[in-house]
Design a protein that fits this description.
The chain has 103 residues and is mostly helical. It contains three helices and no strands. The protein is elongated and about 55 Å long.
Length: 103
């Protein structure tokens, strides 16, 4: 069972790194929205292409709130939920498998 435990731990760590990177990409995009960047800049285009699928879905679900876009905040809260719940659960399951405690 230690092989499956190691696999779960590796998946959890990779997922955690990916969520951290996406967290910072959303933060940078939100900060860029305050300064009106050049839309033809490759970095700005990359940030919009990577975040728009998630933020666009959140915007469709949320009601319109007087011109304030809170979709980055909601996305960050979802990322924090995944970090605290899903990753922690995967690591706990891996630990129990490794120590022989079962599920």
């Amino acid at each position: 069972m230690f092989v499956f435990a190691n696999l779960l731990e590796a998946v959890a760590k990779i997922l955690e790194i990916g969520l951290n990177i996406y967290f910072w990409i959303i933060v940078v995009r939100a900060l860029l929205s305050w300064v009106n960047p050049d839309p033809y800049n490759p970095i700005v285009r990359f940030l919009y292409q990577v975040t728009e699928p998630v933020l666009g879905r959140i915007r469709r679900i949320l009601p319109y709130i007087g011109g304030i876009d809170i979709s980055p905040l909601i996305a960050i809260l979802i990322i924090i939920f995944f970090q605290r719940f899903v990753i922690t659960t995967l690591l706990d399951v891996a630990l129990r498998l490794r120590t022989g405690g079962g599920l």
